[in-house]
Amino acid sequence: MLVKTKAIVLSSLKFQEKSLIVKCFTLSHGLKSYFVRDAFSGRKSNQKIAYFQPLTILEIEAVHKNKGTLENFKEIKIGTPFHSIHSDIYKSTIVMFISEMLHHSIHEEEENEPLFNFLEAALHWLDNHDEIANFHLILLLETTKYLGFYPDISDMDMPFFEMNEGVFTPFNAISSLTEHESNLFKKLIDLKFDNSQKIFHVIERQIVLRILIDYYSFHLDGFKKPKSLDVLKEVFA
To answer: What does the DSSP 8-state code read for residue 195?
Structure first.
């Protein structure tokens, strides 16, 4: 089946000497993996590699056999040329981390247009703004809306957030955040991209990030802590 769709690059893995295996989140078919033959050979190899930077938004034409095997691109072009994301060290570190989080979080080969549209809009925002210290925190929390485990905020006046059920409670259970951690989490829930920047100190931001990674671990089977986490902490220390 020939498919034309937008796609967000989640990961690329070198295969043998010259080829790539690229995992994308597509608008039309959810998660798909593609084989790119001879990505590292020929005069246009640098151009080919540039297509597959983390969270690059592509417009693709591809052959989907839908047999659980690697698919093949027929045509690729940049869907959204970013101006700053891949040249700014802070932004490039954020997208490397987010792409790894999404790589371990999105598993369905089915359309999730609301999630795709949210991620596309968020990346546009990141590319066009400079106050971005809490961007990744807000994005990861908002993404849980589309993955099915956004916190129940109906009892946010309660002092403890229980991670397993995703609810605020009056009781400090084994899987609950401390009252201090719960208050930081409440601050995050109230944030939007445009009003977020001075709300957390560095240590608080690291606490909230740990909470989010733990929260993903509670709700996604087989979730792995991103290898780029240490790089992110180093850059934003």
So the answer is: G
Strands 71-78 and 30-36: parallel
- CB count within 10 Å of CB 203 equals 9
Query: The whole model's pTM is what?
Result: 0.92
| Cα–Cα distances in angstroms (integers) from residue 197 to residues 135, 138, 181, 187, in the given order | 8, 11, 19, 12
Instruction: State the Cα–Cα distance between residues 107 and 126, nearest whole angstrom.
Output: 25
Question: What are residue 3's DSSP bridge partners?
Answer: 62
> 22 and 34 in contact (C-beta within 8 Å)?
yes
- DSSP at 153: -
Q: Are 140 and 98 in contact (CB under 8 A)?
A: yes
pLDDT digits (tens, 9 = 90+) for 25-37: 999 999 999 988 8
